[in-house]
Amino acid sequence: MDLISELPEPLKEKILFALPTKDAIRMSFSSRHWQSLWNTGWNSLPVTRINLEDSVSMEDSFTSSLLEHEGQKRIVHFSLGDGVEEMTRFDVDRWIKMVTQYYVTELKLDITHSFPPATFDVGSLVVLSLTNCILDPALIQKDTIFCHLKSLGLRYVDLNGLVGELFSRCPLLESLDLTYCEDMQHVELCDVPNLKNVVVMQNYSDVPHTFKMQAPNLESLDYQECARERPLNLEEVCCRNLKRLDIDHQQTTITNQYIEEVVLKFPLLEDLVLNADCFASADDIDDELKTCCLNISSRSLTKLNIAGETSDAMNIIIDAPSLVSYESHSSGVSHSISFKSVKLEKHILCLDEPTLDTEWFIHLRSYLGKCSPHVAGLSEIKIYSPQSVEKKISSKLPKTEVTPRPRVRELALVRVPFDPADDAEALIDGLLWSCQPMQVRVQMSHDNDYENNFIKSIHEMLMDGERESPCDCCQETHYKCWRHYLKSVTLQSYIITNDGTEHCYSNENSTMDLTHFEEPCDAIFALQWFDDLK
Questions:
Q1: DSSP string, 295-319
Q2: Per residue in 281-318, pLDDT tens?
Q3: Per-residue CA distances from 146 to 25, 59, 205, 356 (Å)
């Protein structure tokens, strides 16, 4: 045993943590004894977290803030935001040099300068997040190894051709985020056994020409491309243990064949998100029924999310016995959907910016009517930013029963820009003709006076509908409107007052006056329905 190892423990700790960061970390790997000493001493050091967002603007304030922290021995977190004004390259470098001397483990920088400074100790880093900067070749000097780095985030960063070499210097990397970076035409992630989570998002101007990945323990992959007309090349992705996959191809058609390849490629996949321009192709069309089919079959899937235009002539068939949650995003509804799952708990239908005319309401009712009562009862319908609603819709909807009115769990209206005087009645008449929701939710955006009045108009309609005498409407037809089936309405609404305090108001008797509302967040109406006409 060498003489230095025989020194008292406190003295050895003092020696170890007096060394520069890089030398201290290397020393800790020289033997198990020094590794244990490092771990013990590391946990005993005083801990400091520094977040600079917009508090450092003038030079004197910057200098005093820097001097305040220069005596710290362990700075576990340092964050420098884009709100910091008048900070030069020299100022940024000085901060980074200082915090890396004190064993910083989490470094988050939003800067317009190149990174890193001329001298930069990276050995203690566990989390590195860079935004809006340019990678400097100094980051991958000959002996630079990110030996403890587990999380790397690069957002709006000019990679300067260094991305491949950088990955090879991170042997313990577990999480990687590449969001809208420049100069990443070729992305290869190979020999990364610890990698578990990857996010790759690219804009129209800089889509990778090649994307290869060999990550045997990868669990989650988010991949987005905006310009390419073909989806992710699955042959270049070797991740047999993948459990979550999010593919976003806004200019691409995703076919049944591609979905089948996804399921076969990743046999353990539990969570699948598919975002495309549209689904199915000419090859998937049933010539006899004049419809197209989207088939998804998987034994392992528990969550499925589909975003993209689906034709009203499309039949969706989902054979997934373990499926718990299904969600779709489109402006319209498909022809029908069927599930082969005994575990289904959620069926969420998100309708983005639809034009609400007679045909749209008929399709919605037909779609829900073709669902089993169990699936319909689990349905949550969310309508986002509807473009328009057809006037006097109640007089144009069919006066015969197309299908029984399906019961659904919730109907949500989000960011409704309509003039309440003209559109509230048409919207409610159309929606309650299409289904019988157990709850109606109107979500607010806080910046539109129309919405405040819109909630009040809906409130008045529902209250009037509950109290309406059967003799007051529908006298000229045997077909009866939704008012004849409405049993009771209970109002709940969350209010944010001017002092910022959140209050919840509820009224079992449904007589609450909404005129005093200042800034409603959500208005929630709980509805009960008769099985037969009242």
A1: EEE-SS--EEEEEEE--TTEEEEEE
A2: 545 555 555 567 888 999 999 999 999 877 667 888 99
A3: 11, 32, 30, 55
How many CB atoms neighbour CB 518 within 10 A?
9
Task: Tell me the C-alpha distance between 371 and 408, whole Å.
Answer: 11
The SS3 call for residue 507 is strand
Whole-model pTM above 0.90? no
How many CA atoms lie within 13 Å of 377's alpha carbon, on the beta-carbon side?
5
DSSP E strand boundaries for 132-265: 134-135, 151-155, 175-179, 186-189, 197-201, 210-214, 220-225, 237-238, 244-254
Distance CA 162, CA 186 (A): 11
Are 122 and 149 in contact by the 8 Å Cβ rule? The answer is yes
Q: What does the alpha-carbon distance between residue 451 and residue 206 come to, in Å, rounded to a whole number?
A: 40
The fold of the 3-44 domain, in CATH, is Monooxygenase (1.20.1280)
Q: Please name the residues in contact with 213: beta carbons below 8 A apart, sequence gap of 6 or more.
A: 188, 189, 190, 198, 221, 236, 237, 238, 239
Q: What is the mean pLDDT of residues 240-265?
A: 89
Q: Check if the beta carbon of residue 292 is closer than 8 Å to that of residue 286.
A: yes
Instruction: Give the model's pLDDT for residue 346.
Output: 92
3-state secondary structure of 89: helix
Q: Give the whole-angstrom CA distance, residue 513 versus residue 140.
A: 66
Q: Which of 180, 184, 156, 182 is nearest to 167 (CA)?
A: 184
Residue 147 — φ and ψ, nearest 5°?
-70, -15
CA separation for the pair 95, 75 (Å, rounded): 12
Paired with 351 in beta bridges are 330, 383
Domain boundaries, the chain: 3-44
Strand partners, 254: 279
Q: For residues 24 and 2, what is the distance between their CA atoms, to the nearest angstrom?
A: 18
**Residue labelled with tokens 């990110």:** 146
Ramachandran region, residue 130 (left: φ > 0; alpha: ψ -120 to 50; beta: rest) = beta
Q: Look at strands 75-80 and 48-52 and give their pairing.
A: parallel
Q: How far apart are CA 312 and CA 367, in angstroms?
A: 9
Q: Which of 214, 206, 142 is nearest to 179 (CA)?
A: 206
- Tokens standing for residue 368: 């829900």
Q: Is the peptide bond before 116 cis (omega within 30 degrees of 0)?
A: yes
Nearest one of 300, 383, 397 to 349, comparing CA atoms: 383
Question: Residue 504's CB: how many other CB atoms inside 10 A?
Answer: 10
Residue 183 backbone class (left: φ over 0; alpha: ψ -120 to 50; beta: rest): left
Give yes or no for a contact between 38 and 9, defined as CB atoms under 8 angstroms apart: no
